[in-house]
Design brief:
single chain, alpha+beta, five-stranded mixed beta sheet, 2 helices, 23% helix, globular
Length: 126
């Protein structure tokens, strides 16, 4: 409701062969997670570098602990917040996102600290 979302890009247009339905769902999932779990400032960056598309979703939330960062891509995994889950979910969103990005020949990474969390997608575009 009171989230500030900023979009930047270094290109006017890019042609990429993708499964539009699944790719859109994967990107939407990252943005939805930033809105639900992140802070009040969200940045979405789309950058084209030679033969590669990079998409980053960055939020200024509380972050994800280092020992949980790679686990967030596991099927049914949810970051533990004690005995409560303020936001409903099944723990399959990031698993699904990772699988879709991999099916497109790319990869996804997460980098997080107490100030921000960045999910970065890298998709080859030969």
């Amino acid at each position: 409701t009171k989230k500030n979302i900023n979009f930047t890009t270094n290109t006017d247009a890019i042609i990429l062969e993708i499964d539009l339905f699944h790719f859109e769902n994967a990107i939407s999932n990252l943005i939805d997670n930033a809105i639900k779990y992140g802070g009040d400032h969200i940045k979405i960056n789309l950058n084209y570098v030679p033969k590669t598309l990079e998409i980053s979703v960055i939020d200024n939330g509380n972050g994800i602990e280092k020992n949980q960062q790679e686990k967030v891509f596991d099927k049914f995994y949810r970051v533990s917040k004690g005995n409560t889950h303020d936001v409903k979910g099944f723990g399959i969103g990031l698993y699904y996102t990772k699988k879709i990005i991999e099916k497109h020949g790319g990869h996804i990474t997460v980098l997080s600290n107490l100030e921000k969390t960045t999910f970065k997608l890298v998709i080859p575009n030969e």
